[in-house]
Amino acid sequence: MPTRRAVTGRSREPRARFAEELRLLRTARGDSLRQLGERLGWDWSLFGKMEKGETIGGPEVVQALDQHYGTPGLLLALWELAVSDQSQFKERYRRYMALEAEAVSLWHFAVSVLPGLLQTPGYAREVLAAGGLKEPELTQQVEARMGRRELLEGQSPPQFRTILSEAVLRTTLRDPASGGSSWSTCGIRGSGTG
Length: 194
Description:
Low-confidence stretches: 178-194
Oligomer: single chain
CATH superfamily of the largest domain: lambda repressor-like DNA-binding domains
Number of strands: 5
């Protein structure tokens, strides 16, 4: 889906807009990424990734950028919008995410993998990597999936029920931290053969 543009010619997608604003502020000052990194004490490649939209960084770095550019709270507000941006999910899931966020009751039936709302970061990474995702999109999608869990952990969560096929509990995923010698079932580490 093409990025929507506003009257200003800038993106209206929160993550893209955040990246654009960072790039515009830096170039308006005439700083290189390396100079910015030296001034703020962070690796300059982080700022490059933020300006490309590959990552949005953390609140600490964004607060430092707000202070550096004299934009108190502006970049942090854009960052907060980018964190909760549903466009970080693949297009086909956006409608589902919107409905899920409004639901008062959720029912899931899982045949081969745990529902996304129940996945741990490691489990989600393995499932998404098995589906062909590569970095940096892989990390972005894992973060997005973990952000969905707030739905069940926040105030007034919807009623959640799931029926899991036995295959979900027995399907093994390779544990990348072990170099492939250990396997993970349902996010629980163990040894076995695949």
